[in-house]
From TrEMBL:
Localization: Cytoplasm
One Pfam family from the record: SAM_MT
Full protein name: Ribosomal RNA small subunit methyltransferase J
Catalytic activity: guanosine(1516) in 16S rRNA + S-adenosyl-L-methionine = N(2)-methylguanosine(1516) in 16S rRNA + S-adenosyl-L-homocysteine + H(+)
GO molecular function, one term: methyltransferase activity
PANTHER family assigned to the protein according to its UniProt record, in alphabetical order: RIBOSOMAL RNA SMALL SUBUNIT METHYLTRANSFERASE J (PTHR36112:SF1)
UniProt record similarity statement: Belongs to the methyltransferase superfamily. RsmJ family.
Length: 218
C-alpha cells in the first residue's frame, strides 16, 4: 500500500503506509518447510488438533476451517484423509493460499492428493458457514496480544500486518456453534483468558503454547 508524494527536489517518491512487516511477502509452502516437515514426521491422529477435532482410528469427520490463514491446520487435517473446506476473508491471504495450493498441486504427487481434498472459499465465514452444515468447524482467529514479552513468530507478525486483529471472533464462534453438527474447536493461546461471551468448552486439549477448546454440539 503506497502513497506518492514529491521530495524537495521534485522527484516522486512512494511512502509505504503500513511499514510494519508488509515489506515481507505472504507466502505459503505446502511441500517444504514446517508443513512438509510435519507431514513427514508429524504424529498423525495423535496430534492435538486432530484429537480435538474428533479424529479417531475409524472416524474422519468433514471439516470447515473458518479461519484459513496459511492453511496449515487445514492441510494437516486433509493429510489425515479429511475433506476440508477453507474460508478466508482477506483478499491478500486468499490469493496467497490459492497460489500456494496451485504450486503444491504441481510440486509433488503425494501433496497434490492432499490438496485435492481441500476446497478454498473466499468470504466471511460468518456468512458462509450457515450454508455448509459442517460436522466440525475449526476457528483460529488472530490471537490477542501476549501478556509476556515472548516474540510472536515472524510469519504471524506478517500475517497480522495484512489482516489486523479479528475483533469479531466472538460473533464467529457463535455462528460456528449454531452451524456445526458435531463440534467446534477454538484454537487459542494456552495462557490467554477464555474468549469473552462464549460458553465454557466441553473440554480442553492443552499444548505448550496453544490450547484447543472443544465445544460439543447437538
Ligand atoms: C491465525 S490465522 C489462522 C491460521 C491457520 N489456522 C493456519 O493453520 O495457518 C487467522 C486467519 O483467519 C482469517 N479470518 C478471521 N476471521 C475470519 C472470518 N470471519 N471469515 C474468514 N476468515 C477469517 C484471518 O483473515 C486470518 O487470515
Amino acid at each position: 500500500m503506497g502513497r506518492k508524494s514529491r521530495t524537495d527536489n521534485g522527484e516522486e517518491s512512494v511512502h509505504i503506509d503500513q511499514v510494519e512487516d508488509q515489506s515481507e511477502v505472504l507466502f505459503c509452502d505446502f511441500s517444504g518447510g514446517a508443513v512438509g516437515h510435519r507431514l513427514r514426521f508429524g504424529g498423525g491422529r495423535g496430534q492435538d488438533l486432530p484429537k480435538a477435532a474428533g479424529f479417531t482410528k475409524g472416524r474422519t469427520p468433514s471439516v470447515v476451517d473458518a479461519t484459513a490463514g496459511f492453511g496449515r491446520d487445514a492441510f494437516l487435517l486433509a493429510s489425515l484423509g479429511a475433506e476440508v473446506t477453507l474460508i478466508e476473508r482477506s483478499p491478500d491471504v486468499h490469493a496467497m493460499l490459492e497460489e500456494g495450493m496451485a504450486r503444491a498441486r504441481e510440486a509433488d504427487e503425494k501433496v497434490a492428493q492432499i490438496i485435492a481434498r481441500m476446497t478454498l472459499l473466499f468470504g466471511d465465514a460468518k456468512e458462509i458457514l450457515p450454508g455448509l452444515a459442517p460436522e466440525v468447524v475449526i476457528v483460529d482467529p488472530m490471537h490477542p496480544p501476549r501478556k509476556t514479552k515472548a516474540l510472536v513468530k515472524k510469519e504471524m507478525r506478517v500475517l497480522r500486518s495484512f489482516v489486523g486483529a479479528d475483533p469479531d471472533a466472538e460473533e464467529l464462534m457463535k455462528v460456528a456453534l449454531s452451524a456445526a453438527e458435531k463440534r467446534v474447536v477454538l484454537k487459542w493461546p494456552a495462557k490467554a483468558d477464555p474468549l469473552a461471551g462464549i460458553r465454557k468448552p466441553s473440554h480442553q486439549i492443552m499444548g505448550k503454547s496453544t490450547r484447543y477448546d472443544v465445544f460439543m454440539v447437538g
